[in-house]
Write a structure and sequence with these properties.
A hairpin with a 2-residue loop joins strand 4 and strand 5. The chain starts with a strand and ends in a 6-residue tail after the last strand. The chain has a single domain, classed as 3-Layer(aba) Sandwich (Rossmann fold). The protein is built from eleven helices and twelve strands. By secondary structure, the protein is of the alpha/beta class.
Length: about 325
């Protein structure tokens, strides 16, 4: 494995629940409970799980767009959770985010030139000529032309908007990017183009990438390692192909059973989960998946499983998997 660039250790993000006239805190929503993983230089790491599992909150917390409630995030050996706002601002040139929905993430009052120039003015001391040159350069890299610099977001299609979002994230030449469901808001015909663009830019710019998605077909295509999240916790983690060939956690098996096959003759055993995701404001005391797991025992309902490590650092949090 390459040198570690990002090291997330026991990250926790809770949101307070307020009640009454005095707005007292009466509880917390456990959006991210205990998240730990590493990302190497120039590696693509994927966070996957169904809606509401906390993966987008985790991405925002890593970059401190949402302040984490606990844990540590080391970027290039430095714990960025302990940095002051000014120190964090200087670090942001190296850490960027591509948002899920380009329709809402782009300011409709700013043209493309302004959208791409603003990060350069914030993070660098450059002349107007250099800013214009860098904006044109990054726009060409994402497949658009300098003639489009003076247009506004409403004048572009959904795929073009996402290209602009990617250009805005990469214009400061970061080392690390979190892509939060970057193709889920796009037509299927456009998704492949954006994925190909991201992978080409990752290689050309030597980026490390955390790809957040619920689409397991997409994840298999682009990531080298994968972590499966459920209710703010990682259930299983390891090499992508190893997990696809031999999923150990019941939740992972249920997710993979729902992935459509390209082979019409292939017969897959569908695992249908019963019940609903537990309330993150009142998570179960044991394994968070126990209320929906057909293999759950009394031990599962009372005690949270420890992470077990198997072949090629394939880890799983389940009482029924032997070490």
């Amino acid at each position: 494995m390459s040198k570690t660039l990002l090291d997330v250790r026991h990250l926790r993000t809770w949101f307070p629940i307020k009640s009454g006239v005095l707005r007292k805190t009466v509880g917390h929503v456990h959006a991210v409970e205990d998240l730990s993983f590493t990302v190497g230089e120039e590696e693509v790491f994927a966070l996957v799980g169904e809606s509401g599992c906390g993966k987008s909150t985790a991405g925002a917390s890593i970059l401190r767009l949402i302040e984490p409630s606990g844990g540590e995030v080391f970027f290039d050996g430095l714990n960025i959770v302990s940095l002051s706002p000014e120190e964090m601002r200087r670090r942001r040139r190296d850490m960027q985010l591509v948002f899920q929905n380009p329709y809402s993430s782009l300011n409709p009052r700013m043209n493309v030139r302004s959208l791409l120039s603003e990060p350069l003015r914030v993070h660098f001391t450059l002349g107007e000529g250099e800013i214009r040159e860098k904006a044109e350069e990054i726009l060409a890299l994402v497949g658009l032309t300098k003639d489009q610099l003076d247009r506004y977001p409403h004048q572009f299609s959904g795929g073009q908007k996402q290209r602009i979002s990617i250009a805005r994230a990469l214009v400061s030449r970061p080392r690390f990017v979190i892509a939060d469901e970057p193709v889920s808001a796009l037509d299927v015909s456009i998704q492949a183009q954006i994925l190909n663009l991201l992978m080409r830019l990752r290689e050309e710019m030597q980026l490390s990438l955390v790809f957040i998605s619920h689409d397991l077909n997409v994840v298999r295509r682009i990531s080298g390692r994968i972590a499966v999240m459920y209710l703010g916790l990682i259930m299983e983690q390891g090499d992508t192909e190893l997990i696809y060939r031999n999923p150990l956690h019941p939740y992972t098996r249920a997710l993979l059973s729902a992935v459509p096959s390209h082979d019409p003759l292939e017969k897959k055993r569908r695992v249908v989960l019963q019940g609903d995701v537990p309330n993150p404001a009142n998570p179960p005391p044991g394994c968070p998946f126990a209320p929906r797991c057909s293999q759950a025992t009394e031990l599962c309902r009372e005690q949270r499983p420890k992470e077990r490590t198997g072949e090629k650092n394939h880890t799983v949090a389940c009482h029924h998997v032997k070490e």
